[in-house]
Amino acid sequence: MTRRHDLAALRQRLIDFAAARDWRPFHTPKNLAAALSVEAAELLEIFQWLTPEQAAAVMDDPDSAHRVRDEVADVLAYLLQFCAVLGVDPLTALAEKIDRNEHRFPRPGERPAPSSG
Amino acid sequence: MTRRHDLAALRQRLIDFAAARDWRPFHTPKNLAAALSVEAAELLEIFQWLTPEQAAAVMDDPDSAHRVRDEVADVLAYLLQFCAVLGVDPLTALAEKIDRNEHRFPRPGERPAPSSG
Amino acid sequence: MTRRHDLAALRQRLIDFAAARDWRPFHTPKNLAAALSVEAAELLEIFQWLTPEQAAAVMDDPDSAHRVRDEVADVLAYLLQFCAVLGVDPLTALAEKIDRNEHRFPRPGERPAPSSG
Amino acid sequence: MTRRHDLAALRQRLIDFAAARDWRPFHTPKNLAAALSVEAAELLEIFQWLTPEQAAAVMDDPDSAHRVRDEVADVLAYLLQFCAVLGVDPLTALAEKIDRNEHRFPRPGERPAPSSG
Q1: E strands along chain B, which residues?
Q2: A86, A92, A97, A103: CA torsion to nearest 10
Q3: Eight-class DSSP state of C50
Q4: What contacts C29, CB < 8 A, 6 or more positions away?
């Protein structure tokens, strides 16, 4: 895996993958939101009984590191597919959210920006 | 918002944002996995009582469209921050998962690739 | 299983079970809330790709019926243990919530009760 | 609230409540599983940034205690309604699960029971 991956190309691979297997009828916004939520819970499951020290060292064990990367991939896959079926650009959504948060939570010592809303 | 956003730049904005507000002690892998899971459930909440038709039209209403984009942003933000604290590259994780899935679920009519593992 | 089960006895069995195996240090409120959330997602996972018809028939298949009962048991187990460590009475909490909801959502044709709060 | 509450009576109140408001068409197994999962995540949300000490003291603050009881009620309400629509007895499901777990995780110093399955 030396090639660099970009989000748009991965998104297209996911869409083609589902189309080739006739999975698109299952990929409704509601089903994809449910699947995203289930995968996020599976990521949390890895950590649920760990102490903070164990949690911080989770990537040192090859099996649990693989499991973490696998669940991260599932979360991202369903997020991209959810966004694709609804026409949402997740990067723009995130950029606009960070803009709003910078306004809402000024840096310590910074004057709050005047609200436009 | 005409500039194009890229994932690496947004990831860095999130890291700087948390650092400037001294939020990093809260951003343990376990807490971020919990927060990711909570935000994914909030995205699902938008759809939980909707019919398939209502769910497909969710972006037609400006308020619910805003809510969808806001929750998508939160999910992606916590996923990127989770990956940052554990040193996981989410794009490589997804690319490798798609590779595995292409092997595991061959296209209809395609011979399964010989297993290397 | 002909004896009738009651919630208080099951709650006590769960507490004794965890105590006998020295699991109590793991049973913090936060860990139990995470585990409850994970088990609820596993219950949802059974339904995520099903049509409404398939979902309504889920108990007709012995394997999926077993899986549903197993996940219901896990959700209830973690809910009871969560309540036990925090001293919450789940039945009283539910009764009070139904009281509030009857006030908040009057039956059609019923005058809303005068608010006391 | 001095009367003692029992699970069967609360379950019936929930069913009557939904029937009187014509909410039953929304209460499909899949929707109720999604709602249960969303409420469990809202319970987790209360704890997501808390230290273990703060989490253990969550009932000392009246507002957060109320929030905890409210989310516990929502989780239990959706669990009971989910079980009602599918004909699952949650207490029997839990009793059978504890039976299986006592077999699967013998007490320390106890010989594992011979497996019947």
Answers
A1: none
A2: -150
A3: -
A4: C82, C85, C86, D47, D55, D56, D58
Distance from CA of D37 to the nearest CA of A (A): 9
Q: For residue range A98-111, list pLDDT tens digits in order.
A: 999 999 999 887 76
Give the other-Cβ count within 10 Å of B106's Cβ. 13
Q: Does residue A113 lie in a domain region?
A: no
Closest CA to A44 of B45, B32, C78, C72: B32
Query: To 10 degrees, the CA torsion angle through C12, C14, C18, C24?
Result: -80
Per CB distance under 8 Å, which residues of A are interface residues toward C?
26, 31, 34-35, 37-38, 40-42, 44-45, 47-49
Note down the domain range covering B25.
7-104
> Quick check: is C40 in a domain?
yes
C29-47 and C62-86 are packed helices; what angle lies between their axes, rounded to 10 degrees?
A: 160
In chain D, the number of structural domains is 1
Contact C28 D56 (CB under 8 A): yes
- CA of C115 to nearest chain D CA: how many angstroms apart? 18
- Comparing CA positions, the residue from A20, A42, A84, A70 lying closest to residue B97 is A70
Q: pTM of the predicted model, to two decimals?
A: 0.92
CB contact under 8 A, B75 and A70: no
Three-state secondary structure call for residue D22:
coil
Task: Specify the pLDDT at position C3.
Answer: 55
Please tell me which of the candidates A26, A31, A41 has its beta carbon nearest to residue C38. A41
- pLDDT tens, position by position, A75-96: 999 999 999 999 999 999 999 9
> Is residue A55 a part of any domain in this protein?
yes
Cα-Cα-Cα-Cα dihedral of B88, B101, C47, B66, to 10°? 50
What's the angle, vertex CA B23, arms to CA A50 and CA A66, rounded to 5?
A: 40
User: Does ipTM surpass 0.85 in this model?
Assistant: yes
The span from the CA of A42 to the CA of B33, in Å, is 9
Q: Which pair of tokens denotes residue B42?
A: 């909030």
The answer as to whether A28 is a domain residue is: yes
CATH number of the domain that residue B12 is part of: 1.10.287.1080
Measuring CA to CA, which residue among A59, A29, A56, A64 is closest to residue B51? Answer: A29
